[in-house]
Amino acid sequence: MGSSTAKVRLQLLGPLKIIKSTGEDCTPRGRKACALLAMLALSPENKRSRVWIQDKLWGSRGKEQGAASLRQSLSEIRKAFGSSRGLLFADSYVLALDPTSFETDIDLTSNANDCGELLEGLDIGEDGFEDWLRSQRQSVSDRLATRAAGFDRSAGVVLNETERRCSISRNRVVLVRGSTSGPLDASVLADSLIDSIAKTMTELGAAEVIDCRGTKDPLCGAEDAASGKTLSLHSDVFGSNTMQIVRLALRQRPENILTWSSTLQLSGSQALDLNNADVMRCVNLVVNVAIDQFIRLRSQSPDAEVASKLCYSGILHLFRLGKINFVTADKLFATAFDIESRGIYLAWRAYLRTFLLAERQFSCRQTLQAEALDFMHRALELEPHNSYVAGLSAHVQTLMRRSYVAAYELAERSIQLNHANPIGWACLGIAKSYLGKPEEGFHHTLLARTIAGTAPFRYQMDALSCIAGTMAGELEKAVHLAEASHALAPTFAPPLRYLSALYAHEGKHDLSFEMVRKLRANEPDFSYDKLRDKAYPAAGLHRTSIIDSLPARQI
Q1: Contacts with 324 (C-beta within 8 Å, 6 or more apart), sequence order
Q2: 498: phi then psi, degrees, rounded to nearest 5
């Protein structure tokens, strides 16, 4: 940004100092207030969520105490800025700096050797901040080293063609004709679809497209394969005169790792219509998935495998239930994200908070909801075409906001991206049930339960099927499903709540009271009146008359 528009200068190299355009020093006195400003200045788009900042600067404190400390630091910054306080924006969820109102010395210097270390001497004693600072120091050092070497275009350096080709590796998509069976013109179907995809990619500038369908060598254009920025798009056609299936697959080269695949089914009398909505959706989906994959390949950490293992360990802890497991799972997901900034790790953190809500293990529901929604939105921004990000986000919308239309849209996206995603099917079923189609919804949740197999979240698929079955009036099946969930996860609260009501509705009061006693082991204040409360996490019961049959007597 140019100095002519900047009102405030942030000196980040060496000791932090903030200078107004008048020359006045407006650096806040508090170290954490200074750290907050530096983190915003170095963040993408100069903004971060309150939850993220609070975790980094006050992670060792309780959430309420941390939130109060954050508010105090914001007040200190505004006081120090005085007439320039408009530089800082804050609402209930996001903190930001106006990018048109400030500049940093990092933007202007070509070498940090004479300027000192990034945020020199800024020690606040929080592990989250220290980890962030180490990462930023390395990133800034690399950026300045590259600029000093003459590769920064913004510094006015013009690279010759050889240097340009060496410094910039282009995204490439290699078109490969797969296997073909059925009618002689079957390959024409696939080629027409591939041509449309290739045209879209080329027009968007998403990738250089290399057509290898007419060659014997499927590795043409492989000179870029070793760079890790080449994908191959395969088209396979199977079928007969009465039915044809076109399968598309994106693979990462040179390892031939499957990145994405999908199928289109056509009847024998149906020609491939490129104006068909399903076909056009498929075309755009392939392009968007490819773009996301290129972004991931460029930013992928060498420790990505470690992050993946940490995430899987977090998933296992999450579904084991209990406060200790929830805390451990959240730390594992957070660590995985610090290693590799993938949306799926944030999505699991958002999803975990729906368990804290369902199990009533929180001190402030507003804070819990703000955290879940922040993680969800960031996850969707980072990986909008990850079916599990979409599916987990749908569950967050259902539990945290009871926003069933949003949940429906996200669950449908999840299924379109991956037809075999059980969480997507379960969330689609629940959303449909709340939107007035309980029979369809129940069918979807039963499908989710079937395809989940022995997954660690199988008991939740049973519980969601119980909820959908209850709203569909399939009470006998709902009881069976709740009992199945309870057998797999004896302390899981949702099936116990539904069983306490369903048993009472059947006149099995002894069994109902037994469920109440079990719930009180982890939820001492539970009562039938809790189930009658519409704010309590048992919304499906209020869509039925079962709630009216609860006993008035408490135990």
Answers
A1: none
A2: -70, -40
Give pLDDT tens digits for 202-253. 665 667 788 777 665 455 544 444 445 688 888 777 766 666 777 888 888 7
CB neighbour list of residue 23: distance below 8 Å, 6 or more residues apart: none
Q: Tell me: cis bond preceding 438? Omega within 30 of 0 counts.
A: no
Report the half-sphere exposure of 379 (CA within 13 A, side-chain side): 29
Token pair of 49, please?
């969520």
- CATH code of 169-299, in short, is 3.40.50.11830
Other Cβ atoms within 10 Å of 433 Cβ, number:
26
Closest CA to 473 of 425, 439, 427: 439
Is the pTM above the cut of 0.90?
Answer: no
Dist. CA 118–CA 338, nearest whole Å:
20
Q: Is 520 exposed, middle or buried (0-12, 13-18, 19+ CB in 10 A)?
A: middle
| Residue 160 identity | N
Give me the sign of the Cα torsion angle 92, 94, 95, 99.
negative
Is the separation of the CB atoms in 88 and 74 below 8 Å? Answer: yes
What would the pLDDT profile of 194-205 be if each residue is shown by its tens digit?
787 877 776 656
- Give the CATH number of domain 393-555; options: 3.40.50.300, 1.20.120.660, 1.25.40.10, 1.10.540.10: 1.25.40.10
Q: Where are the domains of the chain?
A: 8-148, 169-299, 302-372, 393-555
Q: How far apart are CA 373 and CA 353, in angstroms?
A: 10
The length of the chain in residues reads 555
In the block, tokens 């989940």 appear at 452
Strands 8-11 and 47-49: unpaired
